[in-house]
Amino acid sequence: MRQHIPIPHDRLLYADCYVKMHTSFLSDRIKRKLRGIYMKLHKADHVRGEITVPGDKSISHRSVMFGSIAKGTTEIHNFLEGADCLSTIGCFRRMGIDIENKNGVVTVHGKGMHGLAAPAETLDCGNSGTTTRLISGILAPQNFDVTLTGDESIQKRPMKRIIEPLSMMGADIKSVRGNDCAPLRICGKPLAGIHYTSKVASAQVKSSILLAGLYADGLTSITEPQVSRNHTELMLKFFGAELESKGTTVTIWPATELFGNRIDVPGDISSSVYFVAAGLILPNSEVLIKNVGINPTRAGLIKVCEAMGADLTLLNEDHENAEPTADLLVRTSSLRGCVIEGDIIPTLIDELPTIAMMACFAEGTTVIRDAAELKVKESNRIAIMVENLRAMGADVEETEDGMIIHGGKPLHGAVVDSHKDHRIAMTFAVAALAADGETEIIDADCVDISYPAFYEELENLQNSKRPESIWYFSRDGFGFFL
Ligand code: SPQ
């Protein structure tokens, strides 16, 4: 029930505190060290409070990359200091770009489109597919040679999807082991524009081609089966590039210069999904997630929550900037199953593991299809989700391109393997709070890839107070929820 009564925001109703993690008596530093080998979680009574999730990973990567090849300074506020984005910073520093990281602001001193220097050693992209694929598009047209690699997972992820179109543009890019995976050897060459029709809706493929197209002779365009996230298009335009998006096709004109700018990175909707899920499936819960990016090419989660009957409200919507934001207010809900397929899939691809877990707590059946891309992420996210959900007692089937989840069966604690995939670890940390007994997550420290403070923040919400009133600002005026 929503009431409009003037109660100051700082008057909080204190709830009982519950400490649910075995390790809660340890300092955060020691907890982080132990996490790789030891993370046990137990059922929680609720999650309550306010949270600000870290900056968007996709936008953080792009702001460093584009800032490096732009002229002048790019100041990045709310940059995500996760391992993936730090890998991107590391790569550009090795190519002579001065990048400062002080007091939460990353400053990139760009050297222009032809200012990168040949790195003395192999570039290490760590665990980051975004770094590997986008940087390849920037490196293919340079006048130096370079080798790119990454961790065990990156060396298994498919790179043919970028090798093929970049080669069509004239690039000399090869998989060193001949298996279409990293390490990649790129010998810089002049490129020519092409029109490419991609078999997959992938922002990484699209961005790699568009970045190469910035340097190419003539127009470059790409058509995807569905529209993937458009952060590259929005940010390149903001930095002065000429692009046009029509339906599922994006065209880029060659550029002579980009210009650095200030970037305010919105909170990552892919990091918010864990708190959305926790707030919806745990009893007596209410979570306000502040300043989340709701770019329509990323916000499929909101539509699915609606279809599942979730109590999710968007507050303080801000559409002033190219990347719109809102606060997400979620409350305990009776969820129902739904079908997730087609064009919506690229807009929630990274949220699907968590949505699949949420579906276990919904009445009825949830069908996820057209999501075969999940198999080639940091892990095979279909197989791993099915394996781990089953270990916790869920009724779930693996399909060629998704999952079928029969909800309503209570979950119990189990040992679940994250396979060093950050999204799997975070999904099962939330599942653990809603399951009976104890859940142990193997290689739980992989959350550092995108959300280093995840476990502490999840724990805080279990101990947190219920915000008595939440101020909001919407198109209809001011108000607050009680
Ligand atoms: O960077 P990486 O490792 O590929 O990260 C993931 C993730 O879950 O964090 C995928 F594993 O996100 C991708 C996302 O799935 C980030 C991304 C981007 O920034 O352009 C786009 C998506 O991948 P794709 O292949 O659909 O373009």
Give structural notes.
With 482 residues, this protein is of the alpha/beta class. The protein has 13 helices and 25 strands. Helix 2 (57-68) packs parallel to helix 3, helix 4 packs parallel to helix 6 and helix 10 (352-359) packs parallel to helix 12.
Task: Give a quick set of tags describing it.
single chain, about 475 residues, alpha/beta
Fold topology:
Blueprint: H1 28-35, E1 40-42, E2 48-52, H2 57-68, E3 71-77, H3 83-94, E4 98-102, E5 105-111, E6 123-124, H4 129-139, E7 145-149, H5 160-168, E8 172-175, E9 184-187, E10 195-197, H6 203-215, E11 220-223, H7 231-238, E12 243-246, E13 249-252, E14 262-264, H8 269-281, E15 286-293, H9 300-307, E16 311-318, E17 325-331, E18 339-340, H10 352-359, E19 365-368, H11 381-391, E20 395-399, E21 402-406, E22 415-417, H12 422-434, E23 438-442, H13 454-463, E24 470-474, E25 477-481
Parallel strand pairs: 2-15, 3-14, 6-7, 10-11, 18-19, 22-23
Antiparallel strand pairs: 1-23, 3-5, 4-5, 7-9, 8-9, 11-13, 12-13, 15-17, 16-17, 19-21, 20-21, 24-25
Helix pairs in contact: 2-3, 2-7, 4-6, 5-6, 8-10, 8-12, 10-12
Ligand SPQ binds at residues 57-58, 84, 128-130, 202-204, 228-229, 349-350, 373, 377-378, 423, 450.
Question: Could you give a quick summary of the protein structure above?
Answer:
The chain has 482 residues and is α/β, with parallel strands linked by helices. The protein has 13 helices and 25 strands.
How far the N terminus sits from the C terminus, by CA atoms, comes to 8 Å
Give the integer mean of the pLDDT values: 92
Alpha plus pi helix count: 13
Helix content: 25-40%
Structural class: alpha/beta
Q: Which cofactor or ligand species appear? A: ligand SPQ
> Which residues sit in consecutive blocks of at least 5 with pLDDT less than 50?
1-23
Assembly classification: single chain
What best-fitting shape do the alpha-carbon axes yield? globular
Rg, Å, rounded: 22 Å
Strand order of the largest sheet: 2-15-17-16
Mind describing the biggest β-sheet?
Answer: 4 strands, mixed
Q: How much of the residues is beta strand, in percent?
A: 15-25%
